[in-house]
Amino acid sequence: MNSFDFLERKVSIMAEELIEISDADFESQVLQAEKPTLVDFWAPWCGPCKAIAPVVDELADKFGSKMIFAKCNVDNNPVTPVKYGIKAIPTLLFFKGGKLAGQITGMVDRAKLEKDIENVL
Length: 121
Known about the structure:
Layout: H1 3-17, E1 18-20, H2 26-31, E2 37-42, H3 47-63, E3 68-73, H4 79-83, E4 91-96, E5 99-105, H5 110-120
Parallel strand pairs: 1-3, 2-3
Antiparallel strand pairs: 2-4, 4-5
């Protein structure tokens, strides 16, 4: 296996652990999910969103077997952020059993995010 094969495999694995959701499939992908779900509300122009993304990716690798990790672009999906009162990004919402189970707004360190994930699990 050369280094390109390894990188391709890594991207494939991460793609399975971090899903893209929309207003149209939010209910089926998040509210009806069998596992707890973390939804990262973000936008491509948001600096703090870009900064927290690698942390969310790493935690998706670590907790992906126990929790669903999803991203929702607020520019392309305006209905869901309004429904949940999101006024700033990045905002991370935790859902468990179809109910909101926690929220983090703004940039936080990995330890805080990891602790909140463990609390939801």
